[in-house]
Amino acid sequence: IILELDSMSNAEVLVLIGYGTVQRKVLEALNRTEKANRFTLVSSRGMMPGTIKDLEVFAEGSLTINFPETTLDEFSDHLQDLDPETYNTNPWFEEWYESMYGCYLDSSDMKGYTTQCTGLPITSSDQYMQDPHSVFVINAVYALAHGLDGALSYYCGPTYSSVCSMYMNAVDRSVLLLLKTMRAEFQSEAE
What we know:
Oligomer: single chain
Strand content: 5-15%
Largest sheet: 3 strands, parallel
Structural class: mainly alpha
Number of helices: 9
Distance between the termini: 38 Å
């Protein structure tokens, strides 16, 4: 990725969204490609001393943007209530559950695990940690939903019940959707 970005003369900034492991892999890639001062790094989390150990020259001059961290108790409560034996809405939940506990749910498909799962809540696993930035994803979805509602109301009328042909045929619908999304107002989950 670093070499591909390096081939783009206008690429000057690398934005890192992730924790120490992701940050370190990028720094190591910069080291392998000898691109120490080629890019300005902007990180969503501060780089810890262990992350940059022996790679300090590549982190020099980087910027960190720290977002306020918050957890959503309602989301943890929701996860706590999910039973891996009966919850089938999310097709990846069983695999995630097995990974979190290092166990198998189905004895005919043990996936390399030697212990059968006991049905403990996902939030009881030592591996469980709610990403403190989840609220930003949730707020982004809310903003887009409000933006889409605004754009559909504009083209289809305030009582629309489906996507109308005026919206589908509008040349500027993407621009209006973006504007409506940027201006969306709603109660944030973080509040």
